[in-house]
Design a protein that fits this description.
The structure is a homodimer of 430-residue chains.
Chain A lengths: L5 H12 L1 H8 L8 E2 L3 H10 L9 E2 L2 H6 L4 E4 L7 H10 L3 E4 L2 H17 L4 E2 L10 H8 L5 E7 L2 H13 L3 H10 L8 H4 L2 H15 L18 H9 L2 E10 L8 E10 L11 E8 L3 E8 L3 H16 L2 H8 L19 E10 L5 H10 L5 E6 L9 E7 L2 E2 H12 L9 E5 L1
Amino acid sequence: MIGYGTVGRGVAGLLHEHAELYTQRTGHQVQLGRVLVRDVAKARVAAAQAGDPEAATRFTDDPAEFAAAPAQVVIEVAGGLDPVDGWIRQALQAQRHVVTANKALLAARGPELFALARTHGVSLAFEASCGGGIPCVTALTAGLMGNRITGLYGILNGTCNYILTEMTQRGKSYAQALAEAKDKGYAEADETLDVSGADAGQKLAVLASLAYGVNITGDQVPCWGIDTLEQMDVAFGAELGYDVKLIASAERWPGHEPVGLSVAPCFIPRDQPLAQIHGSLNALAVEGDAVGPTLFVGAGAGQGPTASAVVGDLLNIVTGSYPAHFAGMRLTPDLHPPAEHVAEADLEGRWYLRLSAQDQPGVMAQITDALGSRGISVSALLQHPPRDGETAVPVVVTTHRATRGNVQAAADAIAGLDVITGPPVVLRIL
Amino acid sequence: MIGYGTVGRGVAGLLHEHAELYTQRTGHQVQLGRVLVRDVAKARVAAAQAGDPEAATRFTDDPAEFAAAPAQVVIEVAGGLDPVDGWIRQALQAQRHVVTANKALLAARGPELFALARTHGVSLAFEASCGGGIPCVTALTAGLMGNRITGLYGILNGTCNYILTEMTQRGKSYAQALAEAKDKGYAEADETLDVSGADAGQKLAVLASLAYGVNITGDQVPCWGIDTLEQMDVAFGAELGYDVKLIASAERWPGHEPVGLSVAPCFIPRDQPLAQIHGSLNALAVEGDAVGPTLFVGAGAGQGPTASAVVGDLLNIVTGSYPAHFAGMRLTPDLHPPAEHVAEADLEGRWYLRLSAQDQPGVMAQITDALGSRGISVSALLQHPPRDGETAVPVVVTTHRATRGNVQAAADAIAGLDVITGPPVVLRIL
């Protein structure tokens, strides 16, 4: 195993505690071998604290010694691109199966690693890379294989979902909710990767590549974060019966080959199952042409859930089923050309616009004109009372189905009107 | 394929429509061969109506001719025990993999069939037997393998869930909701198998056998149906914040090896995800010691979802991964002794009791005495106004954790009191 952080200790703990159970299940003894760490002394202290003193003799900080030790499978739970990437390649070249939880690596260099595994006749398993404890990679690549997938809608970042739940249910501002998430350990000291949507974008790249049999990298996913979301919009959405969630979506509209990708805060009707996923839970809704809508829910991260996914992969390698699956079910992105994807401007959906307008006659006509002249049909138009000490009134418009490009162009035109103050807010309604 | 009913036509349709997709995914051409039906003329009409004229030449009503035709896999979507059982055994003996959607057969004779498949070096796949479109068999036997499972809670019968949703959300009586379900085709002309809980019990036997690595048959699952549920209890539960669902549960309490099995209408707090599963949807909540709570949701039955599961199994056989999984992951009940299970009286939970009492002093003391003397702690006690034209008042008691046996004994004692009219109603609170 490479790495002995939170997840690594969880994996070591499961392998120790459930040794007998895993032997019953697989007919093989599954034992942890050498563990490559940066700091052996620190790892020994962590092992002793985790009640795993036996593990203490396994640590090495020497990659060459690690590579030379006997192993059939290498588990990578260290994270980051380099030097981990090199160690994984070395393991694959030595015909060792690899289990990884590393979404950043897969989103950036997945195709090369999958191809290398194939070349050497071994497999690369990665259930833990997306959605922590939810076995959604297995569902997408095995259970739902009879379907042409038409939509993926995921809540794939627990930090964002925790913050949005606090903003929605307790009326907190983004800044308040973020500070609390840091206090409670749900957010990192540097929260950028989470709140910008980049983490969810990496997971979406991995999942959408599998679902659509294409090759999508993390940098192809347009991401709008939650860091600019205002409490006012959360509250207006709630009045309309919507909860806001950071949704990673990959859709294929009828007759379109390209996949529409996006990570963005979206409004979801409160009676939809995805709106019921609160706190740090993750969820993935998958729509297939035969199965219809399905939903998978579970813990998005954390020691136990991620270790569960890593060990699940390991046991499926031990029985031989995952290597056969990896070799036989041709879904991984190394087998596919780079995905054509829908331009941001062409993403279709329903939209929420919030404008700040002077309360004077003719304003509504100018707003509806700007929308109507671009073929955008208005579903609802609501003028709220002015906020304390302000003369401008918030105006909320919801639209019927339209492209993001058209809606953004209308919003830009509206922003240019004399009677409008400040930039319009545009959010998708799922 | 054996059978050409709703599901069979769905399978044929997918194999026809997605032929190219399946070849891309598996590297093999997957083609439908002979189809064994009872009435060839009727099947030809159905095939023509389904826009599948090509299928018309494939039908035979002769089991011997069917068995002699070339095939690597036999799909069984006919249902029932005999003669289907014999044809499945014949296929396995001829070293053909079998895919079945037949929960009744698996719940009754699963271990024999699994063992026969092993003897002949082939596999028996059955994702479609439980929960229609939800790939929950795959989740339980592959994705969650690192866990010791501690709880399964399923909404596994769409007919019951439809009826209960109508009773809860629209205040209908059981009889009204059932009549409507029949009108809309959600319930069979003879609804007994569904509303008695027997259908959910068969599915629970299959799923719990896998989850706990034991051998449970359908007849070992105690079933309480929804057919005696009164609208009054649905309404009183709603006042307390509960929705009622028919829950198939298999639990292993800490320190207990035996599995507690039950199918029964249960109250679920409305903010729990399982309470949000409405209409004909199915869901399975799985709790594992590492992963924590997970939830899988999808269509419970119907042509598309069931065909999706059947074809998913088929494609995983074609790639070789399912045969390796079936041989290597030792979960199926043929490998395990019959399960010890918890006696009905020892099932633990929280409980709802509804009594009909005379409105006179001392009644409450007598009721709480009967509970307290059996060590049952009361959580809430609510006396409702008498119903029109009745002198007795409904009294609702909710308890803290207690065994069903103790609660039933207390209810029986309470029923014997002079001040109580009619039998008490006992329902579990999850």
